[in-house]
């Protein structure tokens, strides 16, 4: 059986995916959701209260994780409801037709916790799920991980820090720190090492 | 002969690469540089005055474009000089040993222009170069393009706009606009369509 390595998901990293679920009336829903690769056949997600995805998986423990880099799918599923043309059925569940790969997952446990970030406190549900079946539709599959982007962003700001005024310098340092938080949340060991190097150089500027 | 499609570079998009050159004393240099895929065998780059890369290619018209997502190579070649352990020779030129792919390019023309951005005016050299030979070392090769990341970033800010205070809201709108400028510089048609959808929704918030 294929495991998450077959779609290049590495243990410990968080990937941007589109999760498809259906409600009790069989209406499909798609939402962009970060998926942590916990092990070769296990994932973890954080779902906020009040989202369709959470409601749907509470009534049906199977859901589909779609691997895609299609910008319109990310944009349209965030800005509103994704048009039904995008969905297709696999057994009893919906997936995104033009995803590069998708997998069926089944909930193992749901744990509700309180989370605090820079915006405030919120109730969040930690979902652990097992990977049942992986279907590859379009090789090469590379799931979307934001760590290298955060590093490139930080390096762009770093390169400009010397040539901008004090106010902009502060904004850039703040951005680099935000990008560093992103890397510690989504990245792997090498990403974290690179980010640490950047932070050390920023301090010395 | 292989062309840029073999390493999944699409016409019109800008990719983040590492360019390796050597100076007159045969000392290798590596720098992170954006490369526009102009055609299947033609690229364009913008190089600022005073950079080693520009000095080196003015004395030797051949250079190497390395395709990698290694975070330490990006960080270390920006923060200082990349350690010589990273380089290897191909004929007379240096490439990055653990790049997924690289290609040898030869300058076709250099045009100096004045460029103005939000930081100020600067002299920039527009380099057109032909692709001579592509070497793939590690499949699948996927060159680094920032457009989908800029879209995901924008969507993250968009989702939070409703729940933050007015001041933060302004910062987020500004960020989305920056990300939109990035997409128009580096992205393809679908990225631009997605970004336009986001901007329309931001205006209505």
Which labels suit this protein?
homodimer, alpha+beta, six-stranded antiparallel β-barrel, two-stranded antiparallel sheet, 5 helices, elongated
Query: How helical, in percent, are the residues of chain A?
Result: 25-40%
Chain pair sharing the greatest interface: A-B, 38 and 39 residues
Distance between the termini of chain A: 51 Å
- H/E element string of chain A? EEEHEHEEEEHHH
Strand order of the largest sheet of chain A: 1-2-3-8-7-4
| Proportion in β-strands of chain A | 35-45%
Q: Which parts of chain A are unreliable, with pLDDT below 50 for 5 consecutive residues or more? A: none
Rg of chain A (CA only): 19 Å
Q: Regarding quaternary structure, how should these chains be classified?
A: homodimer
**Net shape of chain A:** elongated
Structural class of chain A: alpha+beta
Average pLDDT for all residues of chain A: 94
Largest sheet of chain A: 6 strands, antiparallel, barrel
How many helical stretches of chain A? Answer: 5
> How many individual β-strands of chain A?
8
Q: What report would you give on this structure?
A:
Two copies of one chain form a homodimer. The first copy, chain A, has helices at 52-59, 71-79, 147-161, 166-186, 189-203; strands spanning 14-22, 28-39, 42-48, 62-67, 87-90, 93-96, 101-116, 121-136. Chain A is α+β, with helices and mostly antiparallel strands and 205 residues long. Chain A starts with 13 loop residues before the first strand and ends with a helix.
